[in-house]
Amino acid sequence: MLLGFVEPKFVSCTSLESEMRKVCFLLLPMLLGSCASVGEISQKQPYAALDSSKPASLLAECIRDTWQNTKFGGTAVAAQLQKSGESYLVLAPAGATPVEVAKISSGTVSLHFAGGIFEWRKQKRLESVKACL
User: In 3D, which of 89, 122, 71 has the Cα closest to residue 80?
Assistant: First the structure.
């Protein structure tokens, strides 16, 4: 004991590194398994399906722009617009994977989400899509 304090006990760095490797090894398959592709997300049952009389291109641009201006936690997410044949996809990524997909074709918009999205966030996205109809 030094000046009334308990001397610290040190743990070997090699044992900590070994434990961290084990944890990372166990978590990696779960993290990779939870990433869904755009195709997988858009094949799910839609959260909402809406009709519109606007051309698909104008509707897609409006949804993209609205999503880019919608803030969650003080920051906006950069939405992306992709064209596939006569239909469009608006994607809102979280990191490297898309979590929100608006599928737009002539006269219809379907809204799809990856798992784990809060209901309030889904409702906010739905409101922004409705504003574009």
Answer: 89
Among candidate residues 53, 36, 45, the one with its CA nearest the CA of residue 91 = 36
Angle, CA 93 vertex, CA 74 and CA 130 arms, to 5°: 75
Residue 108: inside a domain: yes
Q: Amino acid identity, residue 76?
A: A
CA-to-CA distance for 36 and 20, rounded, in angstroms? 26
| 59: DSSP letter | H
| Structural domain span for residue 53 | 36-132
- Residue 98 domain-assigned (yes or no): yes
- For the stretch 26-72, pLDDT in tens is 544 444 444 667 677 777 788 899 999 999 999 999 999 998 888 77
- Give pLDDT, residue 28: 45
pLDDT tens string 77-110: 788 899 988 889 888 876 555 677 888 888 899 9
Number of domains in the chain: 1
Q: Does residue 114 fall inside a structural domain?
A: yes
| Tokens representing residue 21 in the block | 């490797």
